[in-house]
Design goal:
Length: 304
Amino acid sequence: MPARIVTLTVNPAIDLSAQAASVQPGHKIRTFDERYDPGGGGINVARVIRELGGETLAVFASGGVTGRFVEQMLTQEKVPWHAVPIGGSCRISVTVHETSTGQEYRFVPRGPNLTAAECGNILGTLRGIEAHWIVASGSLAPGMPTDFYAQVAGVAAALGARFVLDTSGSALAASLGHGIFLLKPSLSELETIVGRKVRDLGGQMNEAKRLVQSGAADMIALTLGSDGAILATSERTFHLPAPPVKVRTGVGAGDSFLAGLVFALAHGKPAERALELAVACGAAAVQGSGTAQVRRADVAALLD
């Protein structure tokens, strides 16, 4: 029976991406090549896992006409989903690629406020879902308690599922050591955890290993952008550089990396092979346009 990977997105978004010749203050910016994608960390992870051929379910908070649009887009992409109704409307994030400079501008709203009852409904939904893995990815919505992901970790433990977390700030700090199987921080998030800058590769590998030894998580996947990624377990720590690809966007690259890593681990691949797939998925994402636009053929070509 294939492993079922359930993803959780408590602050999803419609991701609007477009191009513009030039972005200037005080001017009407004419855009072109607009596209809409269902967005938010866990949703992106589920979309990539589904593309890789995995069994997944995207659980997310959904409200307003924007929430219904997210549901519609997931249905069109044939990604299984379960929406938890909320009173507020899902946010709309905007990314504009400036063709004259190659710069990318990203505008990300905070999202709707979630009530205590709505937070309880999300946890209750998870308790009633069959899952072998639960991947919580993305920021908390306003009004949510900082220890919400620690509570999700408790639900995962009760279900016998492995818990994976990708978040930042106070939500990350409040979750460390609460039954996380796999934690995926970025370099800036790692530096926030350890309280200092860590810019050399050896130091980054050592800090990732120390996090595992401290009990923060069983496994640490540290993403380093164009410098690749580090994976630390209780047995070993290793680094894999990123393949040289043309970068078009960074939106959803970390989520695509995480999807590849979890997919491989859930299918019994050793850690080193899993990291290879993860890095290939991240590289495939940055070559595309829109959010987490990963294609299995592109991943296979990168692996070859």
